[in-house]
Amino acid sequence: MTWRPLSVHTRLTLWYAGALLAILVVISGLSYWLLARSLAQDVDRSLVTLAQVVRDAPRGNGFEEAEWWVRELLDPEHQLFQLLGPDGRLRMRSWRLRDDRLPLSAAARQSVAVGHASFDTVLLHGERIRVIALPVVRNGRLVEVVQVGMPLAPTERTLQRWLEALLVLVPLGVGLAAAGGHVMARAALRPVDEMSQSARRIDAEALARRITIRGTGDELDRLAETLNGMLARLENTFGEMRRFSADAAHELRTPLTALKGTLEVALRAERSGAEYRAALASALEEVDRLVRLAEDLLLLSRATAGPDSPRARVELETLALDVAEVGTRLAKDRGVTVRVGALAPLAVLGDGGALRRALLNLVENGVKYTPAGGRVELSVTAADGDAVLAVEDTGSGIDPADVARIFEPFVRLDTARSRESGGSGLGLAIARSIVVAHRGSLGVERPAAGGSRFTIRLPLA
Ligand code: ADP
Hints:
Heat Shock Protein 90; 10 helices; binds adenosine-5'-diphosphate; five-stranded antiparallel sheet; Helix Hairpins; Beta-Lactamase; 461 residues; alpha+beta
């Protein structure tokens, strides 16, 4: 038989019933003890009163007067009393005692000798009897000892009945409470079962489904809302991934189709060596484009996964000078100048190679989208506790309506020009992923003088 964990509502019920049982057992024990104590006190108090009555009863006609008084107070079965002399010898006893004697223990004898009343519990014909020994002292001398007894059977019967009642009531109460608790816990947890059922129906294909919110505004509704929020984010991410795969496939297909076309045309007829060379050169161009695209895709996936080398100190001054040098080489053929502006000696923690890639992508774009005679300026400054790496150009600028889009993968604003310049549309997406992985942000603004200004903000080391 396999062991199945107990359901939450069963466990709740067990805990609840266990706690209630413990409380009731403690309370019952306490009530039993208090009742026993108060009954015993009552018996002792009555014994004191009776002993005083016997002591003070007139003795003219022997013992009858005392018996008469006690008879007024007790039923005949309970008239157990006797008088002892100071030496302990029996002087008189009640009718009910007949041939018996109430015993006087050694301790009681000592106690009355010094004038104190004493209580004892003794056995008489198998019956438990509580006995008081009350000394009668006159002129400082013990003259008599009055002993009165009272059977304990009635108080013991009362206690027994209370115990029996508890033994029935406590299990009954716990049983009823557990049954009620079980029903309540089941009802309270039923929505959880329903939630898990509706969650089970949601998979990658049905991410648009949501868990039903009952509208009670309680914890379970909040849980459902939280799960729905998570589903919405997952759905969004899945959607982005699908779009990304489709775009990537599309991007791959374009150079591949061109490559196929070039090769097919070259093979269709006998060609001269020069023509073959031209076809191969064109094919190589497409292959280059494919290699760049594959490299960019790899870079993007690495950047999204976060830095893989341990975070090290990266000096931004050195980084900017290095990138500016590469930019200058790229810009030479296009008649664009790359300059270095303000250079604050700042450092951040991170992956130097990845940050260089991000900054270089911005400089490359600046060079690509700035017409001849223009200028690209790189600077490093500090603002609000962050390092700000800025790349400003005097190029075409970006329409504010397009700003949100350009950081998405495969987005190119001016397709003809971008393709001609060899861009895959991944440069800004890669840069943004790298910066975000460094807990920074990448933004773009439009300087008053025209062109665009991209800024990378990173927390200072
Ligand atoms: P691409 O490979 O096309 O350069 P990017 O992700 O780097 O891809 O850039 C996305 C688009 O954003 C570019 O196609 C271009 O239209 C626009 N863009 C990027 N940088 C600049 C810039 N400095 N000036 C004007 N437009 C830019």
